[in-house]
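Posting here for the record, re: iron/sulfur cluster.
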Amino acid sequence: MTAETKKRFKTIFNRLRKERPVAVCELTHQNPFELLVSTILSAQCTDDRVNKVTPGLFKKYPTPQAFVKAPAEEVEKSIRSTGFFRNKAKNIKGAAEKLVRNFKSKVPDTMEQLLTLPGVARKTANVVLGVAYGIPAGVVVDTHVARVSQRLGFTKDSDPVKIEKVLMELMPREDWIYGGHLILLHGRYVCKAKKPECEKCIIADLCPSKKLFLKK
Ligand code: SF4
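Prediction output follows.
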């Protein structure tokens, strides 16, 4: 990675930071377990939709034990509107089982342990570690972060693990938690998948993709 790339990233990052000094996870949760379940549910689904489903879900199933006991069909019914509900229910029940069996029903606080849970890849683990525990183990790379990183020309990769590696190199560790969410929110609210709002984007002059969208 060249010094010039690092410098360009820093300029972009500082502008985004100025625009959005606070960037937090928008999934409603009361504890690490709720955040874990919400993050599993948020795959291919909006946070808004997840936040509509989770209050009722956690009222019914407030603990990992409650999810273990619940019949899969019941959990599926409760989370149906988040999409891919069969797979998500299977992962949530599987994760709950593992928490009860191996982790005294507590969500672990290391990347290594989190990655042993069904349905948990680095993105989910980074959300839980960063948001619930304040541990900067890596950078959250979801679909928004991946898209923004590509459009800004910092990566050509679509593999989230490779994109995360680039972002970890571009950001100092103390910015990993905030920075991931900052880029994510820029993608969610400005650099949208279908119609990015380049006219009001404060980093447009530094973005190689702007011309692609302003032409349309
Ligand atoms: S200029 Fe457009 S494409 Fe580039 S980051 Fe901003 S919104 Fe995204």
